[in-house]
Amino acid sequence: MAATLSRWLSLAFALCALLGAHPLRADVAVPPLRTHVTDLTRTLSTQQAQTLEEKLRALEARKGSQLVILIVPSTQPEEIEQYATRVFDTWKVGRKNVDDGAILLWAKNDRRVRIEVGRGLEGAIPDALANRILDETLLPMFREQAWFQGLDLATDQLIDLINGEALPPPPNAGDAYDAASQRQWIERYFPVLFFLPLVIFIASFWPRQREFSASLVAAGVTTAFAYKAIDLPIESLPWVGLLFFLFGLLSAFNLIPGTGFSTDRSGTWSGGGGSSWGGGGGSSAGGGASGSY
Question: Is the previous residue joined to 77 through a cis bond, with omega within 30 degrees of 0?
Answer without folding.
Answer: yes
